[in-house]
Design a protein that fits this description.
mainly alpha; elongated
Length: 95
Amino acid sequence: MKVGELIELVDETIANLKIAIIANQNRAFESPHTSYEFTQRALELQEDLDDLMKAREMLSKLDPESEAEEHFPREELEEFLRLLELLRDAEPHAF
């Protein structure tokens, strides 16, 4: 996988997380009984977003045409890709 492709996956995940954060923040105002849970979820998603933004910044310093395997151990890259998939597919804003 090329670094540029990895950046695209990170960008897609970042966009999904931003939507999820806004959705959870809005849901926090729906009911006093559930506001804590939605606020807590928004904070957790913000932490994930911050981590992804740092990863995105680090990836942007690499040559987008180079192979990601040249820069990262295979196991770490596979784990990172699984994490991105989980964050993208979870759709936490759909609750």
